[in-house]
Amino acid sequence: MNESTPPSQRKLGTGMMILAWIAGLMLAAFWFSGVEERQRNPNQNPESSRLDSAVEVRLEANRQGHYLVNGRINSSAVTLLVDTGASFVAVPAGLAEELGLERGRQFMVDTANGTAEGYATRLNSLQIGDIRLHDVEAGIVPGMGGDEVLLGMSALRQLDFRSQGGDLLLRQYQ
Prior knowledge:
One of its GO terms (molecular function) is aspartic-type endopeptidase activity. Keywords: Hydrolase, Membrane, Protease, Transmembrane, Transmembrane helix. It is a single chain. The chain has about 170 residues and is an alpha+beta fold. The protein has 2 domains: about 1-40; about 50-174, Acid Proteases (Cathepsin D, subunit A, domain 1), CATH 2.40.70. It contains 3 helices and 11 strands, in the order H-E-E-E-E-E-H-E-E-E-E-H-E-E. The chain has helices at about 5-40, 95-100, 155; strands at about 50, 55-60, 70-75, 75-80, 90, 105-110, 115-130, 130-140, 150, 160-165, 165-174. Strands 3, 4, 5, 6, 7, 8 and 9 form a 7-stranded mixed sheet that branches. Strands 1-2-11-10 form a 4-stranded antiparallel sheet, with no helix packed on it. A hairpin with a 2-residue loop joins strand 10 and strand 11. The mean pLDDT is about 85.
């Protein structure tokens, strides 16, 4: 635009440039948030391999060395954090309510933050890729923050699992 351009066209041009910058910044923010989430949970779409008599899922560790994986509890999408030190599958109370899990008997849970109340529950199904577990013992833990489910030994003992080259292999025999 030059000095002979009418002021209304200059305003329109400036407005369009501002909108283009806003759109570009929004796209960049959207893209970077996806990158950050993939770094936090590199197993968003776990792939399954079929072996002779087994199904295997390979999990990649995140930058902190943790194994997070998207899965399903009773057909609802959840994020699972593999925790071999947890006795059972631990579900935060808020998420348990969203999933419609029933609170059973009360018990005390030893956590990293001390002793807390928990409630027994059972998961009709727990799925990671093509691995499907049924009638899994779990606990609802009110003091547990966040929305990640700890995938503890009540589920893991139904699988063979091992570390291989920095990955975690989960295998279910059929």
